[in-house]
Amino acid sequence: MKNFVFHNPTKILFGKDTIPSIGSETAALGKRALMVYGQGSIRKNGIYDQVTKSLQDAGVMLVEHGGVKSNPVLSHVHRGIALAKENKVDVIVAVGGGSVLDSAKAIAAGALVEHDVWKFFTGKKSIKATLPLSCVLTLAASGSEMNSGMVVTNEETKQKFGFANKHLYPKVSILDPTATFSVSPAYTAYGAVDAIAHVLEFYFTNQEPYTPVQDHFMEGLIISCMDSCNRVLQDLKDYDARADLMWAATLALNGLTGAGLGKVGFPMHMIGHSLSALYNAAHGAGLSVVIPGWMIYQAQRTPEKFAQFGERVFGKNSGSTEKKAAQGIQALLSWFVKVKAPTSLTALHISVQDIPLIAENALALAKIWNMKDYTEEKIGEILKLCV
Amino acid sequence: MKNFVFHNPTKILFGKDTIPSIGSETAALGKRALMVYGQGSIRKNGIYDQVTKSLQDAGVMLVEHGGVKSNPVLSHVHRGIALAKENKVDVIVAVGGGSVLDSAKAIAAGALVEHDVWKFFTGKKSIKATLPLSCVLTLAASGSEMNSGMVVTNEETKQKFGFANKHLYPKVSILDPTATFSVSPAYTAYGAVDAIAHVLEFYFTNQEPYTPVQDHFMEGLIISCMDSCNRVLQDLKDYDARADLMWAATLALNGLTGAGLGKVGFPMHMIGHSLSALYNAAHGAGLSVVIPGWMIYQAQRTPEKFAQFGERVFGKNSGSTEKKAAQGIQALLSWFVKVKAPTSLTALHISVQDIPLIAENALALAKIWNMKDYTEEKIGEILKLCV
């Protein structure tokens, strides 16, 4: 096992009827809040009213900044930073999924500096402090509610970049599974795919040959994400299924899966981000296209871990290492098909002729993430397996 | 899933050569430290010198309080509290295993009040604050290094009592697997048994019928504890095996396994504590005696979960629910035998005639822990299965 530091200070309030705690939890952090949210679904399902009432009852002054889009964009973050500064807010409240959370994190960091917040994403500046952040989560997917990462798209440069910094942990995140009841079947599946992708990146790209504690944990999370997603798709208001998916997605990227693994790459996200940046593919949909192709490519090189995956996650116990590996990949692909997540570039209406363009875009992120073993040619080869 | 709050603020530094960080980490918490440690093994393996040098280099004034025994006793805690008050220390440093950590926690709590610290254990007083605590861990077992629990034995009343309070999380814990190289085979096995027992308590006694996320996590931890313990017993200085066991034991009781399970009981610990309180049985040894008997008793009442345990942890896939349950229990018992953990009262030289006495002692703790479904008669029945 590699050396590591694990320190996740986020407080999680999980369960039914927890949303009304957002007021008192936020009031302990600040008195003037910028409330960041998305396209207005929270106005339909009543969460907007619950949150604003709770904040007002707790004496928190509110400035609103709605309109965050899926694949959140830098221009909207810039406007949030301006609002935060103008109104001298001292706390950020995120009400939404990963896109809202990541926008809120970027605003929380950008509000305390004079330079463009994008410099944090390109590595030209490093975050030293942020405004405190509280959160009401409405989508099981990104894990941003309990981690130190954020991803934002710069529309001008067509770059979807992300990174982690210890100042980006939310202080408190409220996870009420009922807040996800109105998430569509498609976005429920994309969320599960995203969570599974987070696990797979650590599972397959770490430096250590044998990490039994982490491997069992990760295999259990993948099984749990698939199982709970299946149950949600049978009944969108199955509380326990929504709860299992929500908690599994949070655990999938809160630092525990990677603790002790050493350096990991995020190649599937690296390529998937380009599909979002260039074609605005939903985050999870881009991933479900890239994952099987990347796995096929990588299993030719390191089949043992893929065989373990096939055996332990899908019970593929017979045959050669290569056979078990292939069966595991096929089983995951079949599950993507079952939950109607796209599994080919064609399904996203992306032409094979665009592969060089995508590879070029992805390479920019590979450079920032210091993934030196990825060239345009290699990314192109992987993308050809995603057709 | 039941509602829960999860907030574990302990910072973990894990790996080789991390012990010299204790100075700077502690200096950030206070300048006058009480250093709590055990019977002197840390003087033999060099850890004492590393820790004191690091603390001195960081400018931390040191008062020493060695001599903590396995199954730490209240009188020694009392002396530590007196020392802490006399010397006006502002931070506690624990260097040892669970016994040292729990003594240090009790001192950290007792140093800030005028009443007897035992009142916290009997529930007559509640902890409102503690001195900050840093730790260098030397035994993979209790999980105290990343949780809010502590267990201390009152020698006068022959009571081994424990409880949890949010102020008892260490601020920082340093986990260097090499610090456990000198732990004997017997105590390595007892430590693994203790960690497994922590998982089993949550696994078998929670209120929810179906908790897939937590169950997979817990099954993986049990498998990891057994696997890594086996490897350590082959080679006491196998770094990766020591590291896997150390991290698995920490994760086994850091709050994650129980998050969402609702109320759990700790019946195996409740009875095992009495074996320690009355006969000074090593904590893990008392547990390995009680676990199989309790499991046999409980499997007759709720066989389904035991069958799942047999299937997923030991691959017992065939036959009836009852058969799989019995095979799982037998497999765990066989593993205890393999690692030379005692599996009967006789092995601890405890007479069957003492069963009423043990049951009476255990019941006192059952009352404090509010385990209303345990009577002396029931505890006696379980103990008869431990013969």
Characterization of the model:
Two copies of one chain form a homodimer. Chain A is α/β, with parallel strands linked by helices and 387 residues long. Chain A is built from 15 helices and nine strands. The first copy, chain A, has a six-stranded parallel β-sheet, with helices on both faces. The A-B interface holds A 1-18, 177, 210-213, 215-217, 219-221, 223-224, 227-228, 240, 243-244, 247-248, 251, 256, 259-260 and B 1-18, 177, 210-213, 215-217, 219-221, 223-224, 227-228, 240, 243-244, 247-248, 251, 256, 259-260. Strand 2 of chain A pairs antiparallel with strand 1 (4-6) of chain B, so a sheet runs across the interface.
Task: Classify the secondary structure makeup of chain A into a structural class.
Answer: alpha/beta
- The name of the CATH topology of the largest domain in chain A is Dehydroquinate synthase-like, alpha domain
Query: Largest protein interface?
Result: A-B, 42 and 42 residues
Please report the number of helical segments of chain A.
Answer: 15
Mass-distribution shape of chain A: globular
Q: Helical content of chain A, roughly?
A: 40-55%
How many separate domains make up the residues of chain A? Answer: 2
What CATH architecture of the largest domain in chain A would you give?
Up-down Bundle
Largest sheet of chain A, described in full? 6 strands, parallel
Kindly report the average pLDDT value of chain A: 96
First-residue to last-residue Cα separation of chain A:
37 Å
CATH superfamily of the largest domain in chain A: Dehydroquinate synthase-like - alpha domain
How much of the sequence of chain A is in beta strands? 5-15%
Number-wise, the strands of chain A total 9
Order of helices and strands of chain A: EEHEHHEHEHHEEEEHHHHHHHHH
The largest sheet of chain A has its strands arranged as 2-9-6-5-3-4
> What multimeric state do the chains show?
homodimer
